[in-house]
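DM from R.C. (forwarded with permission)

"hey, sorry to bug you on a friday — could you get me a structure for this? deadline for the figure draft is monday and I only need the backbone to look sensible"
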Amino acid sequence: MTGTPRTDTGRLMELLSVSLGAYYGDFTLAAASENLTASQGKALTVLRRGPAAMRSLADTLTCDASNMTGIIDRLEKRGLVRREPSPSDRRVKNVVLTAEGERVTDALRARMSATREGLERLSAQDRDTLHSLLERVFVSQ
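My reply, with the result:
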């Protein structure tokens, strides 16, 4: 059988691992530049999408709820987030980014130069294709 050689799933998984390692290293340095841990930076990034309940944040970040409480306590002390009651269940506290939290989150992304430079090497069409593929694989489940 002739045609285009196929990349097996194992090779794709290895490339994703290398890619995520590079991304995570870049993200960790950006977070450190704002005096944040990587976990604090990840929490801010998730909250940039919108308010979230503490349990939801812990699930998204795959960490224990008690660990999430400590992360949010430290972010709240810096004025980057605030807790507010959920409009649908007063027993639940939602975590919301403050204006300063939004600024810091945007600064993290702006400081991720290695990731940004890598993505900017792609053509606009390739970036659109990558976006579509990543969304299909990881978002539209």
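R.C.: lifesaver. The mean pLDDT is 92.
me: no worries. The helical segments are 9-33, 38-47, 54-60, 65-77, 99-111, 113-120, 124-139.
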